[in-house]
Amino acid sequence: MPELPEVENIKIGLKPNVLNKKIIDIKLSTIITESHKNEKLAIIKNELNYFLENIKGKTILDLERRGKYIYFILDKGYLITHFGMTGAYFVVNDLSEIDNKNYFKHKHIIFEFSNGEKMVYSDIRRFGEVRYIEKIEEFKPFNTLAPEPFNEESLKYFLEKLDSKKYSSQPIKSLLLEGNVFCGCGNIYACEVLYKEKINPTMLAKDISQNTKEKIFNALVEILKFSIEQGGSTISDYVHTDGGEGNMQNFLQIYGKKVCPLGHETENITIKTRSTYYCPKCQKN
């Protein structure tokens, strides 16, 4: 799943190619149209006529990220996307320019711009979500999402959540994945930060000192910033809007590794359904 650094890079690559572009038409895959007939609502989470009527004719004024979401600010309303496991956007003059065979095969939404360009949403596994909303403040996931990790108030918020009755008895690894505890962290970077700080992922929040909690937070922010600079992690299907790959996977210390940087064998355990890589020798605490 694209995490904060990957989504930020999608935003960075997409933004200059969509600003002030007018959407004049939208074409949908048969998978979307058939799923809606069967009330499954694949990818598009609005009723289709409502979605089409509210997007067609709109101009994209800006593009922002919140957590693992991006949202297009239209001249009226918002187009919000969560990429699920394998979502991706491409801006092309011709569909043949999408040279990744999997993404070309799994094109699901084609937004046609007035200048002839096309913005294509592809999703191999179809876990992504695209929707139109009139008011951003009415989008419920944003109302419970933690502050952006680079904001000044984020550390205080993070510490308060870890100390709260609701979360203090939960494993630190699972809490790093909670969007209303820390915004934008996914499985890769949760494993990485806990290895960096030599914290066992099963350790309960209440058993971690305040000083160590601050170190975890600061290290995670540092890792996320570095990953943004490296273009994110391409582990399986994540690509940039130009089809290029990230570079952060070349710097990962523990995620997906059979041995840690010190040569110890790693273990892969499951914490709240998520695969968790750690080193039993390095991460004893």
Question: How would you characterize the overall build of this protein?
Answer:
- Helix 8 packs across helix 9.
- This protein has a 4-stranded antiparallel sheet with strand order 1-6-7-5.
- It is 30% helix and 20% strand.
- It is an alpha+beta fold and 285 residues long.
- It has helices spanning 4-18, 30-37, 48-55, 101-105, 140-144, 154-163, 172-176, 187-196, 210-229; strands spanning 23-28, 60-66, 69-74, 78-82, 87-92, 107-113, 118-123, 129-133, 267-271, 274-278.
- It folds into 2 domains: 4-144, MutM-like, N-terminal (N-terminal domain of MutM-like DNA repair proteins, Alpha-Beta Barrel), CATH 3.20.190.10; 154-278, Helicase, Ruva Protein, domain 3 (Orthogonal Bundle), CATH 1.10.8.50.
- The model has no long low-confidence stretch (mean pLDDT 93).
- It is globular.
- The two termini are 28 Å apart.
Contiguous helical run count: 9
Specify the helix fraction band: 25-40%
**H-E string:** HEHHEEEEHEEEHHHHHEE
Uncertain stretches of 5 or more adjacent residues: none
> Major sheet: order of its strands?
1-6-7-5
Q: Decide which structural class fits the backbone.
A: alpha+beta
Average pLDDT metric: 93
Question: Which class of the largest domain in CATH terms?
Answer: Alpha Beta
How is the biggest beta sheet arranged? 4 strands, antiparallel
Q: Give the strand tally.
A: 10
Could you state the CATH homologous superfamily of the largest domain?
MutM-like, N-terminal
Strand content: 15-25%
Apparent shape:
globular
Cα-atom radius of gyration: 20 Å
Count the domains: 2
Q: How widely separated are the two ends?
A: 28 Å
Shape-level CATH architecture of the largest domain: Alpha-Beta Barrel
Write the CATH fold name of the largest domain.
Answer: N-terminal domain of MutM-like DNA repair proteins
